[in-house]
Specification:
Pfam families: CAP
Distance between the termini: 41 Å
Protein name: CAP domain-containing protein
InterPro entries: Allrgn_V5/Tpx1_CS, CAP_dom, CAP_sf, CRISP-related, V5_allergen-like
Structural class: alpha+beta
Order of helices and strands: EHEHEHEEHEE
Organism: Nannocystis punicea
Number of helices: 4
């Protein structure tokens, strides 16, 4: 197996939280009862023309730019399975996440959460992901976080191992999402921020 094909995918050790305790539609078919111009009788009022078909609805584009496209939908597929309201993409949060991803790039794509204090202090929930040897997709990033469900007991809220990324993805009270990505040679780091943040001590995600 070549080094390129043996990608190393890593999620950060813990999902970060602030320091608190708490189809496209088809056009309508023409009405078959509407007479054509050649069959209309001169002794009868001309039939009203059939309404023009409405234009097809344009496919809904992913709101995220570039390689981030689809990451909100990937989150929401897992939330929908639990009947949790979907997240919406926030350009403001995306700028916040990208700023930290760019800073991590200057640190050789180190997998480090924002600190709790100082000028870069965390304001939101945060998930991190790193890959080496192969560019990850948005689907793969979210799938890596959600895979932690294997160690999570929803009845008790207890976790075997690491579950913080998963619980942030499906945190019911989180409403907005913004992500960034930075590359360092054949490595990369992804940052997603959530507002309101999740993973409060003593609370279950849903």
């Amino acid at each position: 197996m070549s080094p390129r094909s043996s990608a190393l995918l890593l999620a950060a050790a813990l999902a970060c939280r602030p320091d608190v305790s708490r189809e496209t539609a088809s056009p309508p078919a023409r009405d078959p009862s509407a007479p054509s111009s050649s069959s209309a009788s001169k002794s009868q009022p001309a039939a009203a023309p059939a309404p023009a078909p409405e234009p097809e609805s344009a496919p809904v584009a992913d709101p995220e730019p570039g390689r981030l496209a689809g990451i909100t939908a990937a989150h929401n597929r897992h939330r929908a399975q639990l009947d949790i309201a979907p997240l919406t993409w926030s350009p403001e949060l995306a700028r916040y996440a990208q700023k930290w991803a760019d800073k991590l790039k200057r640190r050789a794509c180190a997998l480090e959460h924002r600190p709790r204090k100082g000028p870069d202090a965390q304001k939101h929930g945060e998930n991190l992901f790193a890959a080496s040897g192969q560019a990850a997709t948005a689907e793969q990033v979210v799938a890596a976080w959600v895979a932690e469900v294997a160690g999570y007991d929803a009845k008790t809220g207890r976790c075997r191992g690491v579950c913080g990324h998963y619980t942030q993805v499906v945190w019911r009270n989180s409403q907005r999402l913004g992500c960034g990505v930075a590359t360092c040679g054949d490595s990369e780091v992804w940052v997603c921020n959530y507002d309101p943040p999740g993973n409060f001590l003593g609370q279950k995600p849903y």
